[in-house]
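call fold(seq) -> C-alpha cells
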Amino acid sequence: MPVLFFLIWLLLAGEMTLRTCLWGVAVSALLSWACRKFLGHRRRPWRGLGEIGACVSYLWYLLREILKAGFVVMRLIYTKGAQVEPKLIWFDTTLRSDRARTVLADSITLTAGTITVTAEDGRFCVHALDASLAEGIEHCEFQRRLEKLEA
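ret:
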C-alpha cells in the first residue's frame, strides 16, 4: 500500500524532484501506518501472479459483456415494433465474501439492460430490461469467475 500512496503522491505533485520524493515517502509511510492502526487494514500475503491474471481476465470479460449488452439494448431501442418484456429475477449466489458479492452486483449493474436492485445475504434481485437479457443470470459466467477468485 505504501507504493500505491507514493505513486498517487507523485501524480498529484506533478513534478519529480528529490524534495517531492522525500515528502512522498514520508506521507506514504504515515498514511500506511494510519490505515493499519485506525482502519484495521491488514496486508494480505502475496498470492502470486495467478490472482492478478485472473483479475485481469475477469475485467476483460466484463468489458466484453458490457459491450455486447450495449449492442443488444441499442437493438431493442432502435427496432420499431420490438416488444420489450421487463423481468425481475431473484436468485441465490454461492459467493461467500462480501467483496465478491459486491463485485457481482456491480458487474450486473454495469452491464447494459440489467441493474441489481438488492443484494442481501447472498440473495440477489436483478431487474432486466428484457427477458433475453435475463436468461441464465442465475448461473452467469461472472459468478463462476468470482468463485475461482474466491478460492
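The helical segments are 2-13, 18-38, 49-78, 98-110, 131-134, 141-150.
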